[in-house]
Design brief:
CATH class of the largest domain: Alpha Beta
CATH topology of the largest domain: Aspartate Aminotransferase, domain 2
Distance between the termini: 50 Å
Number of domains: 2
Number of strands: 12
Shape: globular
Structural class: alpha/beta
Oligomer: single chain
Number of helices: 13
Length: 400
């Protein structure tokens, strides 16, 4: 018998973290590397939020809290859902965790039994299928290709549902593609789900406030209120509020699910940081003025990257509706030879050779379930983005 659990043999390490670590390693070795792998804003946390955390420390709010969140934060979250999403949740229907990832993981641990299936549209955030596997479930990957704007269709969803289906994981705007579903597209999916009452919806809305070109964000339980009793609506403060390191995510759903998730958290991490919780109260209740301003900066960066990538030989980059990622195709480079003499056989080879030749770190699309593409995070400075795109243009131009 081996010492390490068999479940880990089914799980791959995070490709995005691997790329970030590789870029940092090369930087330490003296290489000029631009890392475009990490999915976090380069903006600093707003001052009012930092001051709220400092005040919490000075006021002695440094003890254990309720396992899944202080009442003040749950109330702020319920108010946010009512104000921004037309969703009526009681504070008792809210769970606060150490980041959005833990909210998702707690829900899967609390609900999955061996053989249960979870529908995961691809491209997907790298952790979705791996968390399902760790929790004993079976990820059912459904392709949402470029021809459909990287969005799953109602027909594809219908075809993927079986008697064993327990969840659909829904992410809009998407990591890794930036694709966002219109209200009509969400309605088409919820119409399918209404016909299958055994299927629950895990809606990851983490990039809700990062949408562009007058796009209007909607979430499944808002579009189809009859689904609210089998929907977990997940969000957090990491992206819109530039609070990635504070580690606060939250979800809202039926009382029975939230209680089960609290039981899981009580025997794993217990409560999130008390200081971070008070900072999140200020984030949700305080001024929101900086959010649209930051979104405009991200839109400018998106437009810069899309324009420059589409000038690179062999690259095709669609314009995403939201988040801070682009997901260009490198199909036009497959079969060509890099300056190192190695042939670009797939997207993983493309990103490997790009890093070695030009010092630009991106993530291969196959890590997100769809190649030959690659993901760029444009949550960095315009200067770094312009330089990295010039390097990508040069790299592609040197392929033979």
């Amino acid at each position: 018998m081996g010492f390490i659990a068999d479940a880990l043999s089914r799980v791959k390490p995070s490709a995005t973290i691997a790329v970030t670590n590789k870029a940092a390693e090369l930087k330490r070795a003296g290489r000029d590397v631009i890392g475009l792998g990490a999915g976090e804003p380069d903006f600093d946390t707003p001052e009012n939020i930092k001051e709220a955390a400092i005040k919490a420390i000075r006021d002695g709010k440094t003890k254990y809290t309720a396992v899944d969140g202080i009442p003040e934060l749950k109330e702020a979250i319920a108010a946010k859902f009512a104000r921004e999403n037309n969703l009526a949740y009681k504070p008792s229907q809210v769970s606060v965790s150490n980041g959005g990832k833990q909210v998702l993981y707690n829900a899967l641990v609390a609900t999955l039994n061996p053989g249960d299936e979870v529908i995961v549209p691809a491209p997907y955030w790298v952790s979705y299928p791996e968390m399902v596997l760790l929790c004993g479930g079976t990820p059912v990957v459904v392709s949402a290709g470029a021809e459909n704007g990287f969005k799953i269709t109602a027909e594809a969803l219908e075809a993927a549902i079986t008697p064993k289906t327990k969840w659909l994981i829904f992410n809009s705007p998407s990591n890794p593609t930036g694709a966002a579903y219109t209200r009509a597209e969400v309605k088409a999916l919820t119409d399918v789900l209404v016909r299958h009452p055994h299927v629950w919806v895990m809606s990851d809305d983490m990039y809700e406030h990062l949408v562009y070109d007058d796009f209007v964000f909607t979430t499944p339980a808002e579009v189809e209120p009859s689904l609210i009793d089998r929907t977990l609506t997940v969000n957090g403060v990491s992206k819109a509020y530039a609070m990635t390191g504070w580690r606060i995510g939250y979800g809202a759903g039926p009382d029975s699910l939230i209680k089960a998730m609290a039981k899981v958290q009580s025997q794993s991490t217990s409560n999130p940081s008390s200081i971070s919780q008070w900072a999140a109260v200020e984030a949700l209740n305080g001024t929101q003025d900086f959010i649209p301003k930051n979104a405009l900066l991200f839109k400018d960066r998106r437009d810069l990257v899309v324009s420059m990538l589409n000038q690179a030989r062999g690259i095709q980059c669609p314009t995403p509706e939201g988040a801070f990622y682009v997901f260009p195709s490198c199909a036009g480079t497959i079969g060509l030879t890099a300056p190192s003499g190695k042939v670009i056989e797939n997207d993983e080879a493309f990103v490997t050779e790009l890093l070695e030749a030009e010092g630009v770190a991106v993530v291969q699309g196959s890590a997100f379930g769809l190649g030959p593409f690659f993901r760029i995070s444009y949550a960095t400075s315009n200067a770094a983005l312009e330089e990295s795109c010039k390097r990508i243009q040069r790299f592609c131009g040197n392929l033979r």
